[in-house]
């Protein structure tokens, strides 16, 4: 009996020791779990990390550093006269100072900012809405079988293939008041020449028209891909049930294109909001400053104003980035409320 009791005690003691060792082992594994997981990921997928490392480095140099530098400059009073510069063999050190949020207060309190913001929003909404509508109409037309469909597709994609600055210069020639083809055609019909680029209202119409011309091919191709992903059986079943063309479009086409539409609208909004080439190359922001948008105003502060205001330009750039980030967050939240995952 005594021997049996002593064996039980020894066994219990041995079990306690084993449990304590196991607990310490689990603790060590828990403490090193994160590091071990990262090490295993690096070891297992080293080739993937090696492939993306150059991209991350390039993005950091091209985007990350200028962004950080821009934010820093927006908090200073840097301009052409007080930045570091070299004149011949003489080097002049920078003398600009940190001013905090003074630049943001000055820009946001300037009526010019509100004017540029209002026109930028109107310009963006007009371009995106017209581009999306035309792209959807053309995509629906090209989604049907008809003779010469491939040729029509190539013709409609052509503006996308031509470099943007070439298209803008071509349109500038068309809009020329004295020698432009558009006014020559109007003159042949007995209509007075239109000051396309010399009148503020017509200039705004012109820049919107050119941007729509450049943006429709992308919108059409994206929506055409979305249309071709919708099962044809849905249209056949709806047609057999007596649904009209409008009902099929409303209840099948639009819901089927929701995911694609949300993405292209977001991308088109960001691109149009920052569409510098069309405004600058077509009107230079004129006549006067009637077609200036936020991004062209930032360019004007840094390269045209005298003295060139680098801090002010950086402030405009940071505000543009902040506005787009706010828009993207609100847009994402609205999509999530509708059940879309983005």
SSE blueprint:
Blueprint: H1 2-31, H2 33-44, H3 46-73, E1 85-87, E2 90-92, H4 102-108, H5 111-142, H6 149-161, H7 164-174, H8 181-188, H9 200-228, H10 232-240, H11 245-256, H12 258-273, H13 276-282, H14 294-303, H15 310-337
Antiparallel strand pairs: 1-2
Helix pairs in contact: 3-15, 5-9, 5-12, 6-9, 7-13, 9-12, 12-15, 14-15
From the structure above, extract its key features.
mainly alpha; 342 residues; disordered N terminus
Compute the number of helices: 15
H/E topology pattern: HHHEEHHHHHHHHHHHH
Biggest sheet overview:
2 strands, antiparallel
* Average pLDDT score: 84
Characterize the overall form.
Answer: globular
Unreliable segments of 5+ consecutive residues: 1-14, 21-33
Question: Strand portion, in percent?
Answer: under 5%
How many strand elements?
2
Query: How many angstroms separate the termini?
Result: 72 Å
Residues in helix, %: over 70%
Sheet with the most strands: spatial strand order = 1-2
Helix-and-strand structural type:
mainly alpha
The rounded Rg comes to 31 Å
């Amino acid at each position: 009996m005594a021997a049996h009791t002593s064996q039980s005690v020894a066994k219990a003691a041995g079990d306690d020791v084993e449990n304590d060792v196991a607990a310490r082992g689990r603790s060590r594994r828990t403490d090193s779990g994160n590091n071990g997981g990262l090490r295993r990921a690096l070891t297992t997928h080293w080739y993937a990390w090696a492939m993306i490392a150059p991209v991350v480095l390039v993005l950091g140099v091209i985007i990350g550093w200028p962004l950080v530098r821009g934010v820093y400059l927006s908090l200073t009073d840097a301009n052409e006269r007080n930045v570091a510069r070299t004149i011949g063999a003489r080097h002049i050190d920078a003398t600009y100072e940190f001013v905090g949020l003074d630049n943001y207060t000055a820009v946001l309190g300037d009526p010019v900012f509100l004017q540029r913001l209002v026109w930028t929003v109107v310009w963006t909404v007009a371009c995106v809405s017209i581009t999306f509508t035309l792209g959807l109409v053309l995509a629906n037309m090209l989604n049907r079988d008809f003779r010469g469909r491939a040729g029509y597709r190539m013709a409609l994609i052509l503006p996308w293939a031509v470099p943007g600055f070439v298209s803008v210069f071509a349109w500038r020639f068309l809009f020329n008041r004295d020698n432009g083809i558009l006014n020559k055609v109007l003159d042949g019909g007995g209509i007075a020449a239109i000051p396309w680029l010399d009148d503020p209202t017509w200039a705004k119409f012109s820049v919107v028209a050119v941007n729509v011309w450049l943006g429709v091919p992308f919108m059409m191709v994206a929506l055409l891909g979305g249309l071709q992903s919708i099962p044809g059986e849905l249209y056949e079943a709806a047609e057999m049930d007596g649904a009209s063309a409008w009902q099929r479009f409303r209840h099948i086409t639009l819901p089927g294109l929701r995911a694609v539409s949300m993405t292209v609208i977001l991308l088109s909004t960001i691109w149009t909001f920052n569409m510098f080439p069309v405004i600058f190359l077509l009107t230079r922001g004129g006549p006067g400053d009637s077609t200036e948008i936020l991004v062209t105003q930032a360019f004007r502060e840094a390269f045209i104003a005298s003295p060139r205001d680098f801090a002010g330009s950086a402030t405009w750039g940071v505000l543009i980035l902040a506005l787009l980030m706010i828009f993207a967050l609100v847009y994402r939240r609205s999509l999530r409320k509708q059940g879309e995952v983005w």
